[in-house]
Amino acid sequence: MRLTLAARSPFSLPAVVRSHGWARLAPFDTDAPSDGLTYVVCLDSDRVSEMLIREAPGGVSVEVDGHLSKAEHEEVVHKVEWMLGLGQDLSSFYALARQEPKLAYVEERAQGRILRSPTLFEDTVKTILTTNANWAGTIRMVEALVSQFGAPLPSDPARHAFAAPGRLAATDEETLRSSARVGYRAPYVLGLARCVASGAFDLEVLKIADIPTAELRERLLAIKGVGEYAAANLLMLLGRYDFVPVDSWALKLVSHEWYGGESVGRGEVEGAFERWGEWQGLAYWFWDWSYAGES
DNA sequence: GGTAGACCTGGACGC
DNA sequence: GCGTCCAGGTCTACC
Question: Lowest CB count within 10 Å: A2, A29, A139, A194, which one?
Fold first, then answer.
């Protein structure tokens, strides 16, 4: 079954896929034909399918195995729209970016959208697994969680959907440590999964919560394992760009860009982008760091 | 409110 | 092959 979804212009699927490393984390896979993106999804009906997403005139096309019921069809549409930010309006950011040489290309390249998972639960777990770990470690931990706790894809049982909260909640800390090798993060992942699975914490409602960014941030910081960096990263995924996710890489970039390689702290990074107000996270994310990268 | 140390893993390095 | 060191954010205890 094939669906076609419209995107607010400007839009570029490769730009979304390359927006950060999420496309390299299971159950995403960029090894798809025609610069496409695949994702193994588990729908509310428990149907596990592979979605093949490709750029199409005015938006994207989505191919899913077999025939979808009306509810499944609507769910796929809703999920893909969220994952790719198809309806996001970044015109205010582009208007500011046109005046900054280091961001002058973003509109032309249709940059600004950041690839996200269908659920905030999945993005929160993945974000926790990026903390205190190098990128290879994050890829390994996510792959382990998906392969060991995710529902298998019927047409290719070697591939799996992301681990559902209930499935993770049913395991224990020691299993997470030994089989997924997530280390001290095990109680964080387990605690979150159990809260979400039990209904004690409705994480997904935060995607549409009409509350100030500062309050949203406080709710994210209340999750064990989510600190300032992780909260800022999740806010970016939620379309709130008032905070810069300051990690060790951000410190290096800002150090090289404005401080001649001298060591800098969180304050310098935040100060460098403060003037961008509600768009500072995006300004940092898509800044042309080529100078720092080459040095 | 600020700070030090622990947490866990994998990679780099020296022997 | 083995041991040691280090990088990577967050939490907790302590001041």
Answer: A2
d(CA A149, CA A165): 10
Rounded distance in angstroms from the CA atom of residue A140 to the C1' atom of nucleotide B7: 19
Distance A213 CA to C3 C1' (A): 48
Model confidence band, residue A293 (pLDDT cutoffs 50, 70, 90): very low
- What domains are there in chain A, each with its CATH number? 2-103 (3.30.310.20), 120-237 (1.10.340.30), 248-293 (no CATH)
In the prediction, which pLDDT does A260 show? Answer: 86
- Say yes or no to pLDDT of A186 above 70: yes
| CB distance A95 to A43 below 8 Å | no
Which helix H or strand E contains A53, and what residues bound it?
A: strand A48-56
Nucleotide nearest to A128 (CA to C1'): C9
- Secondary structure (DSSP) of A150-215: SPEETTEEEEEPPPPHHHHHTS-HHHIIIII--GGGHHHHHHHHHHHHHTS--GGGGGS--S-HHH
Nearest residue to nucleotide B9, by CA–C1' distance, is A183
Residues in chain A: 295
pTM: 0.96
